[in-house]
Amino acid sequence: MSNTRREFMKVGAAAAGLSILAPYAGIAGKLDREKARLFAVPVDENGAYTLSPLPYAYDALEPSIDAQTMRLHHDIHHAGYVKGLNAALASMAEARAKGDYALIDRLAQKAAFHGSGHILHEVFWKNMAPAGTGGPPAGALLKQIEKDFGSVSAMQAQFAQTAKTVEGSGWGILAYEPLGRRLVILQAEKHQNLTQWGAVPLLVCDVWEHAYYLKYQNKRGDYVDAFFNVVNWNDVAMRFDAVAG
Hints:
The protein has helices at residues 3-12, 22-28, 33-37, 67-98, 104-126, 139-149, 152-164, 213-216, 220-227, 233-244; strands at residues 170-177, 182-189, 200-206.
């Protein structure tokens, strides 16, 4: 087994049943180490998931996303998903040791909920950068967008409307679907509902209220529109190149 494959399995094995993580196991062996890091999530020496630091300062995305929201979102909400995922996996290990699976359905739900939340947030933070630094869609990503949606503006309009109309809490997601070799735009209700097996998230927009309510109150649409001011298309393009190249 290659070092890249082993490293990838280490970060993904504990949650390999999560729908949002499943496609990563398939591509891990095909990626070089640097590309694999785009999709890896950090673990400690005991194999427990850990919270990555933000790749920029809390106020780096202002005025589109304010510093207070970033602190609460990353340090409280995202950290809560990490804690919940580790707790669910530990409880599963305990159930296996005892041979008692009476609560396994509930534990599986918790692992899917917290695990999908953790993994999507790991993508979300890196999908953003201070305004003007993330570049426009370019290269192979631009060609694929034009092929699958007609234009960047059409893709953004569909993505925005998808994110704005999620029922309750969830995400708007631009993903690569490898079976059809195409880009797709998905809604995720909560984190794990309405996802599409095999599709790899490239760009995600969190539309849970904790992502925007301090600044935008109930105006989710304004938040989604502002999100496009801070999209890091360079990161999205690297993810696309890694899985579609």
